[in-house]
Amino acid sequence: MTPDDAEAAVGLMDTVWGVPPADRAPGVLRVRHLVGTDPGGAWVSVDDDGVVDGAALALVREGIWGLSLLIVHPRRQSGGVGRELMAVADAHGAGTRGGIVIASSDTRALRTYWRAGFALRPSFDAKGTVRNRPSRDPGVREARWPADRALVDDASRFARTAAHGPDIDALLAAGAQLLVHDDGGFVLFTEARVRMLAARDERVARTLLEAVLAQAETLTVEYVDARQGWALDVVLEAGLELVSECAVCVRGEVGPMWPYLPSGAYL
Q1: Is the pTM of this model over 0.85?
Q2: In this structure, are residues 39 and 92 in contact, taking their beta carbons and an 8 Å threshold?
Q3: Are strands 218-225 and 119-129 parallel, antiparallel or unpaired?
Q4: Could you give the CA distance from residue 110 to residue 82 in angstroms, rounded to a whole number?
Q5: DSSP per-residue string spanning 66-85
Q6: H helix runs in 61-148, sequence order
């Protein structure tokens, strides 16, 4: 994949998943960011006319491999394209100590990840109107960036043994806001979606998520697996509804993944 393939890759996401217009520019930024940081993990497949009909993006951060994207046009699904893209993306993680994939409920994708050695952790998304608004803890503050990079990196390393590094900058460039807690934790979010959260303990994690809910009218909190009981407490108390449509897939040594809400793009 090259930076010039970014528009085609996002167009493919639109075809398969129906990407909202507001997410298309951040999607192009995401693709170009990962082509730049991890060219060895960025791949496309093309049809006989040279049109992109499949794409994969994988990243490596401090010894942890993550699959950011695996997508195939419906007309090419179940024909081996996804398996081949997964193989070359997985090869980018050779020698890493662990891997993370955020999966949809697509049965073919889940089978692919299981065959690649991943344990599948069923997860929830929490969505809806914030009906019971929590108060914002005074310990939560707006980040001072990049002065708070060490605090953010430390929280990521605690939760998953690897910092997110330049991926935080990419999320900020795409319009995400960043809140931190000086006791060790951060949350990245947009107007209606939590993009990533990591903390050194549940108390801090709860206060960060509550701070987002305190200013939101509606909110989506994705990839809440069974280890994140603290998050289930917060979102259900706020009145959000749970839907089961995803899985957090892990392989090898990825740390406790707690307290943690991963990013679908940056793991």
Answers
A1: yes
A2: no
A3: antiparallel
A4: 12
A5: EEEEEEE-GGGTTTTHHHHH
A6: 81-91, 107-115
Please give the structure tokens belonging to residue 55: 């794409």
- CA 36 from chain centre, in angstroms, equals 18
Can you give the pLDDT at residue 109?
A: 87
The token duo for 95 is 């020698």
Tokens of 197: 């959260």
* Residue 8: both structure tokens together: 């085609």
Query: In this predicted structure, what is the pLDDT of residue 125?
Result: 96
How much is the pLDDT for 108?
84
Dihedrals phi, psi of 121, to nearest 5 degrees: -110, 105
Return the pLDDT at 23.
Answer: 85
**Cβ burial 62-81 (10 Å sphere, 16+ → b, else e):** eebbbbbbbbbbeeebeeeb
Question: Taking each helix axis from N to C terminus, what angle separates 81-91 and 107-115, rounded to the nearest 10 degrees?
Answer: 40
What pLDDT score was predicted for residue 176?
97
pLDDT at residue number 245? 75
> Which of helix, strand or coil describes residue 43?
strand
Residue with tokens 């491999």, as numbered in its chain: 65
Amino acid identity of residue 125, one-letter, is D
Tell me the CB-side half-sphere exposure of residue 207, using CA atoms within 13 A.
19
Can you tell me the distance from the alpha carbon of 117 to that of 46, in angstroms, rounded to the nearest whole number?
A: 27
Supply 12's token pair. Answer: 């493919």
Q: In the structure encoding, which two tokens stand for residue 216, read together? A: 């939101």
State how far the Cα of 157 lies from the Cα of 254, in Å rounded to an integer: 10
Identify the segments of the chain with pLDDT beneath 70: none
Q: Which amino acid is at 242?
A: L
User: Per this entry, what is the length of the chain?
Assistant: 267
